[in-house]
Amino acid sequence: LEIDPFIAALPKVELHVHIEGTLTPALRWKLAHRNNISLPYKTYDELANSYKVTYNHRREVNGDNGAPTFLEAYFAGCQVLCTEDDFYELAMDYFKKAHEMNVRYVEPFFDTQAHTRRGIPAEAVLNGYLRAQQESVGKYSVRSNWIFCFLRDEALEDGLDAYRAALPWARTRDGKGKGLFHAVGLASNEYNRPPLLFEEAFRLAKEDGLHITMHCDVDQKDAVEHMHEAIFDICDGAGTERIDHGLNAIDREGLIPGLKSRGIGLTLCPHAYHRRQATEVLFPKIRRLWDEGVKICINSDDPTYMHNVWIDGNMMKVYKYCGFTKADMVTLVRNAVEISWADEGTKTEIL
Ligand code: ES4
Ligand code: ZN
Q1: How many distinct structural domains can be found in the chain?
Q2: Which intervals hold domain Adenosine deaminase (predicted)?
């Protein structure tokens, strides 16, 4: 899908992108050699082919066609990331790409657990991203506030340990932190891992003055129950400020009013869903959320693992298939600004 010049030139904001999901085969190849990590691929082409993943996180659902699941490929990619410089380069590559797409402001997700469980010190991850956050402003005119993600398929205690270790890099209520992240999220495999399992973690983050979001991925098992918990139960219904994905809100009465009354926005990633939903099925659902007045915005999720469709490609898809006007596309960006956690000065500078 060719990017229309209007979409290319539109100033953009991205609120749903996993930094580890922007790792290109080229950088992965380079870091594998630099860090002396043997890849299970003999050639660069074989490596690039490993990015062709299946949609569902569960192998038994995909059938065994030999392709890795998304999460298998994503965590395999993480293995080349070892030093502070590696994390810095990963983030700077993304910021460069963001700059080229006229993305002005980003709230990237990061996992520390994906790295500490391989023996990488959390400081390497956090300092690498912190340096990129600082340098991207001058170098690429891209500002960012980051989101620490709990891996929901790991134990709560493990997530709490990771959170406590990362807290000096947060922008906490007392103003003492290093300012890398200002929010927490919930990612990885949602199967049998409802949001309420992480209630304690979200309460803690809220006490620390951080914002809260969580993934409720599309068409997962118990998707509407997970959404119901996220909206009505986490911190007694005053917890989550956004939901990542959340397309299943249209499937149960009461969810859309719950989103609207609390001002909970949805960070949608249309291409991720388009991989397995027909055009004429998917885009009317997005259109319906829009028509019902839910604050939605458009994002890329894990672009290098999703056919290299970045935020501009995702915006093109809704422009083309939802029947949105140019003014609507501007409103989508304004929605992102509104539901972002940028400070007021940054918000006015973005658009
Ligand atoms: C993710 Cl697509 C997706 N689903 C769940 N967790 C994730 N982490 C990064 N991308
Ligand atoms: Zn995501």
Answers
A1: 1
A2: 11-351
Which tens digits make up the pLDDT trace of 7-39? 999 999 999 999 999 999 999 999 999 999 999
229: left (phi over 0), alpha (psi -120 to 50) or beta: alpha
Q: How far apart are CA 58 and CA 69, in angstroms?
A: 7
The amino acid at residue 220 is Q
Instruction: Decide if the complex's ipTM is over 0.90.
Output: yes
Q: Is the pTM of this model over 0.95?
A: yes
Q: Domain holding 191: CATH number?
A: 3.20.20.140
Query: Which of 53, 72, 188 has the most ligand 1 atoms within 8 A of CB, as the residue to mutate?
Result: 188
Separation of CA 147 and ligand 2 centre (Å):
11
The boundaries of the domain holding residue 239 are 17-25+84-341
Query: Which of 18, 54, 219 to mutate for ligand 1's pocket (most ligand atoms within 8 Å of CB)?
Result: 18
The verdict on residue 282 lying in a domain is: yes
